[in-house]
Amino acid sequence: MDAPLLLFGGPYSNLQATEAVLAEARRRHIPPHRIVCTGDVVAYGGDPKACVDLIRRSGIQIVMGNCEEQLAADADDCGCGFAPGSECDRLSAAWFTFARSELDADDRAWMATLPRSLPVEIAGLRLVAVHGSLGEISRFVFASTPTRIKALDVTLAGADGIIGGHCGLPFTQSIGDGLWHNPGVVGMPANDGTPRVWYSVIEPGPEPRSIAIEHNALEYDHEAAASAMRRAGLPEGYTNALSSGLWPNCDVLPPSEAKLKGRSLSQRTLHWSKSRSCQEWPAAAQQATAPTDKFKDPCITAQGDRRATVSLTALETLWINTGTLCNLSCSSCYIESTPRNDRLSYITASEVRCFLDEIERDRLPTRLVGFTGGEPFMNPELPEMLDAVLARGFEALVLTNAMKPIRRYERALLDLKAKFGRRLTLRVSLDHYTQSLHELERGPNTWQPALDGLSWLFDNGFRTHVAGRRYSGEADAIVRAGYARQLAAYDIDAQDPGELVIFPEMDATADVPEITEACWGVLSKSPADVMCATSRMVVKRRDASRPAVVACTLLPYDPQFELGASLAEASGQVSLNHPHCAKFCVLGDASCSAK
Predict the structure, then answer these.
(1) Element at 449 (helix H, strand E)
(2) d(C-alpha 350, C-alpha 129), whole Å
(3) What pLDDT is recorded for position 519?
(4) Which residues are registered as beta bridge partners of 564?
(5) How high is the pLDDT of residue 157?
(6) 3-state SS of the chain: helix, strand, coil percent to 5?
(7) Cα(230)–Cα(186) distance, rounded to whole angstroms?
(8) Distance (Å, rounded) from C-alpha 431 to C-alpha 401?
(9) How far apart are the first and last CA of the chain?
(10) How far apart are CA 195 and CA 345, in angstroms?
(11) Residue 489 and residue 507: Cα distance in Å, rounded?
(12) Angle at the Cα of 254 (from 524 to 214), degrees rounded to 5?
């Protein structure tokens, strides 16, 4: 019969908690080779050397954490990817400096030998223990992290499930017919308002290839652990957290986890098998499907309130959709562009000139003309359109994946730059700052060509920005810090929302609130803050005799957002009668022009 597994993460230099969890293993007669630690032996606490010595003597199995990786390399920081200057960055600098001074060369050499992943078996199931994720040692994977991101690791590991660490919060989820389990950490409370820490025990279940997962709270001498931190002169923020059970800041937490701060967790045993999923723990608010009675009436919400509208205050940005054909088929393209989707045809340079003429004739305050698609460089007349826009004194922005289509127009782009300089901006799409998640969205072999295109643009002096997405579920500060590391070779300020645009995810099936007239006061927002207050987009529908003007870059197909054939006809109010209006613009604070 399989012996149980005892799992825990993050000793974090907390000697008292580490002693307590190992004592619990002895009480339950679980031998060292059936105990797995998910890494970060050394971190916030006051006894890094003693904690390392204890773990090494114990003979348990341990995965390399980012702290071990960084200390083994004698690096300057813990490698968590905190935003420079953030509270997490400031606090981690203190304990990391202390830990470096306490450890010796032998400790660092041991850390360098630890595996990055560790397979364990129980009940005929193969589980793989990692620290952050399979490919990224310091990636924060939370309960709210999208399922398809977790599923990628389960698939790549060739495993029945993943045992993860790093994020500091325990959870268990079924991932298709796989499992993601985080036992929590013993070195720091789970931000739930109690000083308890968390570990788990997995035992074989009653059926073949089934297991029982116990999420267990652990009481220990947290006052002694806090005293050790104070003797070491470590910051009070994490020291106080040992007693309060509340983290000193929530910079790393996605919104879903941040909302749970101070909410006490309850111990729970879950049953899981390949053929039967388990209930999620901790229980999350279910993502409801959007009720069918929402977003029906352009004037009145489902609750009978007057729907919010937005007036065009000034046409500052005109968007041109060059056509929906694209060289890629992304998993969740905002407008479903693919190599075969021609619902929006290639617009022509002569058609674009008609709208430029209207802007000049009516003296509209337009300063920027943006080109989107599909992939704009699929349209053979794009260089001519750019020349027409720039020659009239407008700024031009092109949204591109920077892959093969753009490389066909290198000579034309160089000519445009020579004539018009930095009034032309190229915004390159990188859906995540890591290759694995970028390619999860865009497909295999899309990462390096995008970086090559980005490098060509920078090497040739083009004004270049980057667009990312929040689909990884990470906190905004972590995402921007990740892009900053990835884009360090380029002249991009990752903290500037214009130079690095991070778009929220949009799901028309999700239940999002309808925006009423009263919402402006409640949210302390103005209709003038919304994208359709200052922009419109021109599209050319397949088989249409002429282009049309729509309210929004995100809603090219919905007939209620088609406003007319000219900019004058499209100058009326827009009713916020779509989930994207709430998710992207009003609540997401997003704008395609990043104004």
Answers:
(1) helix 447-459
(2) 59
(3) 93
(4) 549
(5) 95
(6) 30, 20, 50
(7) 19
(8) 10
(9) 63
(10) 61
(11) 34
(12) 140
CA–CA gap between residue 299 and residue 295 (Å, rounded): 9
Q: What is the DSSP string of 331-351?
A: TT-TT--BSS--SBPPPPHHH
Indicate whether 289 pLDDT > 90.
no
| Sign of the torsion formed by the C-alpha atoms of 141, 146, 147 and 152 | negative
Residue of higher predicted confidence among 47 and 587: 47
Q: Quick check: helix, strand or coil at residue 358?
A: helix
Average pLDDT over residues 343-365: 97
CA distance 98 to 232: 8
Listed as own residue / partner, the contacts of 283-289 with beta carbons closer than 8 Å and 24 or more positions apart are 284/143, 284/144, 284/256, 287/510, 287/511, 288/510, 288/511, 289/509, 289/510, 289/511
- The label of the residue with tokens 């974090």 reads 12
Residues 6+ apart with CB under 8 A from 206: none
Q: What phi and psi, each to the nearest 5 degrees, are found at residue 415?
A: -65, -45
Tokens at 132, concatenated: 């952050």
Tell me, letter by letter, the H, E, C secondary structure of 160-217.
CEEECCCCCCCEEEEECCEEEEECCECCCCCCCCCCCEEEEEEEECCCCCEEEEEEEE
Which residues are CB-neighbours of 58 under 8 A, at least 6 positions away? Answer: 22, 32, 35
Cis peptide before 374 (omega within 30 of 0): yes
pLDDT computed for residue 81 by the predictor: 85
Residue 47: half-sphere exposure toward Cβ, Cα within 13 Å:
19
Contacts within 8 Å (CB) and 24+ apart, 545-553: 546/351, 547/347, 547/351, 547/355, 552/580, 552/581, 553/319, 553/321, 553/370, 553/372, 553/592
Instruction: In whole angstroms, give the CA distance from residue 255 to residue 477.
Output: 12
DSSP 8-state class, residue 547? -
What pLDDT, in 10s, does the model give residues 115-170? 999 999 999 999 999 999 998 999 999 999 999 999 999 999 999 999 999 999 99
Q: What are phi and psi of 73, to 5 degrees?
A: -85, 0
Q: Name the more confident of 353 and 503.
A: 353
Q: What are 8-66's pLDDT values in tens digits?
A: 999 999 999 999 999 999 999 999 999 999 999 999 999 999 999 999 999 999 999 99
- How many angstroms separate the CA atoms of 354 and 143, rounded? 51
pLDDT of residue 509: 67
pLDDT band at 430, cuts 50/70/90? Answer: very high
Q: Could you read off the pLDDT of 60-77 as tens digits, one per residue? A: 999 999 999 999 999 999
Of 360, 358, 372, which Cα lies nearest the Cα of 322?
372
d(CA 133, CA 163): 9
| Helix 410-420 / helix 382-391 crossing angle, nearest 10 deg | 0
